[in-house]
Amino acid sequence: MKEPSLDHWRLFVQIADHGSLTLAAAARDVAQPALSRQLAAIERSCGGRLFERGARGLRLNEAGQRLYPRVVAWLAQADEMVADARGDLRTPAGVVRLGLLASFDPDLLSKVFREVRLRFPNITLRIAAGLSGWLADSVHSGALDLALLSTNSREQHNQEIPIGSIAHMLVGPMGDVLTRAETVPFASLDGLPLVVPGRPYTFHNLLEHWAARKGIRLNVVAECDSLPLQKHLVASSGVYAIMASGAVREDLAAGRLQAARVVSPELNRNIVLRVTAARPPTPACKEVLRIVERTAISAINATSRA
Length: 306
What we know:
The chain is α/β, with parallel strands linked by helices.
């Protein structure tokens, strides 16, 4: 049986990233049946299926998930060898997979993107946003090269850079009495209907710790991983959310929501820049890491002064 070529494995990664043969075919500008045959050949050579087929497309099964980070690392090494042969390592190039907390101010990403594009036009950013638990898992597996995420642990990960901390706000609808003031005591959350992200969510432990210390009851009435949907529920359905200050800056300015900083205690979340240990960082990854670190520290310092 003919072994899969380098391009076959690039196709495997491309299908996994798109989650669809149709989208992968469009990206390659080839017919979908041709890609289906190539994928079948890859799976035959591996001795079994690598994807689950469903109504919404394809997603990696357990075997495919184990294989994905190894293939990504192998392809990155292959690309680096080719670049080295061409003498291109003097100008960092390639794909860098960057993860960001969904609650970050979008301006931070814009600044990172503009600087990378200006200084390193041969670097392509592949950007993902999500909750800290998912970002941490993706960095650990190698699906992401680096990610800005939050942690409430006092232990520092070997592969992370401390960035700073951000304050959290109790977010309510316009006209709400509780969030009209500049600050709100943590004890005021007693019995308050809350919408929070689903587990795993690092902030749950902190909320539960302080609720126990203060002797109050957390009343989580809904779990929702989408920030826009959380905001919609707050504005329309009589619930409250706890969000990073940057996540609601535009909503406050537009008069869509109200927010008060939680105090006694303050709910601060530590932000770190974590790098994958699944493979050595490429020159492109190192340059993006420096830009993200500098930009994130500047943005968090500016927020704390505001």
